[in-house]
């Protein structure tokens, strides 16, 4: 069967169902991303500040925040007065549209 | 089944396999290099700097890797592995190679990363050793070779966003596995090593205490393509100022089934300690060791340099690591020189994990037995006179597939394997 270029995902979807864990994982990421970005829109924050504001484990915040840093949503700001935690902020020219 | 013919099959595209392939290709042999990962370059391409010269690992690896990728006599298959290798006679082998689908036409992909931007999925990045995420449509890492995207089909939601944005239309979900029959005259096994999994030592609390990391994770934190903006604790993003190294994690330890020395941990830990003092000038670094084995050229001087820089060395066996509420870690250890059990607090702990063999290559050989040594590395049947020789004539071993060794020794071993392979092939040519 000839499958049209650019529409091959649709073809594979008919042959290979997407596992539930994968869609759950996507939902979790999208939700956490939204929470983190909304919290940062209110002002620059450190990882412990974000964890407290969102009532999330600090290591979870760190992992997701560093992913958002990589994806270009977030950038690193100044370090706090104790030289311990960096502030993170929304990247003004973030390109990622996902 | 498609049939391909080469002079030599090299299994494993790390630095040892790569070195063997290059040497053979340079003297005119046709080489097929088969690598199971999505990029060649092995573990070295992911390192920060190398001991004892502190040269940048990527700066040494990337030119070699591109030479391999562009060599007219080398064909590289990534995401591929041999399923079966049969010896038909002298200078006559047949291999069945499995090419797994990448769902991307590598030759057409320009590495533009638009698919990465478009992909909505975020999963754990294995090339950052779990410290950050990556997309399901992704380039494995920035200096990967080939620098082409791949689709992680296990985590893909098949939304098609990647293929809609791909300028050269190179994403192709219709790709399937392919088996190829490869005829060769000789084989080099350069299957490398895997790192010890510290979950096997529950006393070290690796899964629960988030600020206990492995040396490979620290290596990533120190590399230019690091996951964080600087060296930080994964547990809460704090910049650490009192870091401990636990040597012999999973090496020289009968209780975890690996009684031998991994040969590289002392030196890479000393290297990381020096790099940490550069990255975090206010930090204290303590290395808990059993013996420091600084045996190579320039190694002892490198050790002395770390001592001069202020790295603290404690002869002690760490028994237990517990996490405090603030994420700091209490190390309970035997101070071997004082003969007493002590406790010390650190805010980050690095487990210097050991080197274990990659298993399974012996099972690929079909009608001849590829002997392993008692530790499951490939046995060198004539270690002094012919160190690359294995129990099968015409099959040679390169690099850490034969045992733990550092980078210079792996390159040397790759060179030796290519020389012995040449000599084996020339025996046929001269007939």
In short:
The complex is a heterodimer of chains A (98) and B (431). Chain A has 98 residues and is mainly α. Chain A contains four helices and two strands, in the order ααααββ.
Could you walk me through the main structural features you see in this protein, from its secondary elements to its overall organization?
Chain A has 98 residues and is mostly helical. Chain A has a single domain, classed as Winged helix-like DNA-binding domain superfamily/Winged helix DNA-binding domain (Arc Repressor Mutant, subunit A). Helices cover 53% and strands 11% of the residues of chain A. A two-stranded antiparallel sheet of chain A has the order 1-2. In chain A, α2 packs across α4 and α3 (47-54) crosses α4 (58-71). The longest helix of chain A is centred in the N-terminal third of the chain and has 22 residues, at 20-41. Chain A starts with 7 loop residues before the first helix and ends in an 8-residue tail after the last strand. Chain B has 431 residues and is α/β, with parallel strands linked by helices. Chain B has helices at residues 15-26, 57-70, 114-118, 161-165, 215-222, 265-279, 299-309, 361-364, 407-429, and strands spanning 2-5, 8-11, 31-35, 49-50, 55-56, 74-78, 80-89, 92-99, 123-124, 133-134, 137-138, 150-151, 178-184, 186-189, 193-195, 212-214, 242-249, 284-289, 312-323, 329-335, 340-346, 348-353, 355-357, 395-397. A 7-stranded mixed β-sheet of chain B has the order 16-22-17-18-19-20-21. A 5-stranded parallel β-sheet of chain B has the order 6-3-2-14-24, covered by helices on one side. Chain B has a 4-stranded mixed β-sheet with strand order 1-13-8-7, with no helix packed on it. In chain B, α5 runs parallel beside α6 and α6 runs parallel beside α7 (299-309). The longest helix of chain B is centred in the last third of the chain and has 23 residues, at 407-429. At the A-B interface, α1, α2, α3 and α4 of A face β10 and α4 of B.
């Amino acid at each position: 069967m000839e499958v049209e270029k650019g529409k091959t995902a649709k073809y594979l979807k008919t042959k290979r169902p997407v596992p539930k864990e994968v869609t759950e994982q996507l939902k979790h990421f999208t939700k956490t991303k939204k929470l983190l970005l909304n919290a940062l829109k209110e002002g620059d924050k450190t990882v412990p500040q974000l964890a407290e504001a969102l009532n999330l484990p600090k290591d979870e915040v760190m992992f997701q925040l560093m992913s958002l840093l990589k994806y270009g949503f977030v950038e690193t700001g100044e370090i706090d007065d104790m030289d311990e935690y960096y502030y993170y902020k929304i990247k003004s020219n973030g390109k990622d549209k996902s | 089944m498609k049939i391909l013919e080469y002079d030599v099959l090299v299994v494993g595209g790390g630095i040892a396999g790569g070195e063997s392939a290059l040497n053979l290709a340079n003297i005119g042999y046709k080489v097929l290099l088969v690598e199971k990962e999505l990029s060649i370059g092995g573990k070295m391409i992911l390192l920060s700097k190398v001991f004892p010269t502190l040269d940048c690992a990527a700066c040494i690896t990337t030119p070699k890797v591109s030479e391999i990728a562009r060599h007219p006599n080398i064909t590289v298959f990534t995401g591929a592995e041999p399923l079966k290798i049969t010896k038909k006679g002298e200078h006559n082998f047949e291999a069945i190679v499995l090419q797994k689908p990448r769902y991307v036409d590598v030759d057409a992909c320009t590495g533009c990363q638009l698919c990465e931007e478009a992909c909505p999925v975020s999963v754990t990045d294995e090339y950052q050793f779990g410290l950050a995420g990556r997309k399901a449509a992704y380039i494995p890492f920035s200096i990967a070779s080939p620098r082409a995207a791949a689709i992680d089909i296990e985590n893909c939601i098949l939304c098609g966003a990647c293929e809609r944005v791909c300028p050269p239309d190179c994403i192709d979900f219709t790709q399937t596995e392919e088996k190829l029959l490869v005829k060769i005259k000789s084989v080099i096994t350069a299957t490398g090593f895997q790192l010890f999994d510290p979950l096997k030592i529950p006393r070290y609390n690796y899964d629960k205490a988030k600020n206990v990391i492995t040396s490979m994770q620290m290596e990533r934190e120190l590399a230019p393509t690091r996951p964080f903006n600087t060296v930080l604790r994964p547990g809460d993003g704090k910049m650490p100022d009192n870091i401990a190294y636990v040597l012999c994690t999973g090496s020289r330890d009968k209780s975890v089934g690996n009684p031998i020395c991994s040969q590289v941990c002392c030196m890479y830990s000393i290297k990381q300690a020096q790099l940490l003092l550069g990255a975090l000038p206010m930090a204290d670094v303590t290395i808990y060791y059993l013996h420091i084995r600084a045996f190579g050229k320039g190694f002892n001087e490198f050790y002395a340099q770390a001592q001069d820089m202020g790295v603290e060395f404690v002869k002690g066996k760490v028994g237990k690591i517990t996490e405090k509420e603030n994420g700091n870690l209490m190390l309970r250890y035997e101070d071997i020189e004082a003969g007493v059990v002590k406790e010390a607090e650190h805010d980050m702990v690095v487990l210097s994990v050991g080197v274990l063999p990659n298993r399974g290559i012996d099972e690929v050989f079909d009608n001849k037995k590829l002997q392993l040594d008692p530790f499951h590395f490939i046995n060198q049947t004539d270690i002094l006179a012919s160190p690359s020789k294995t129990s099968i004539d015409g099959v040679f071993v390169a690099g850490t597939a034969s045992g733990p060794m550092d980078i210079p020794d792996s390159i040397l071993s790759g060179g030796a394997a290519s020389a012995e392979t040449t000599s084996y092939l020339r025996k046929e040519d001269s007939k």
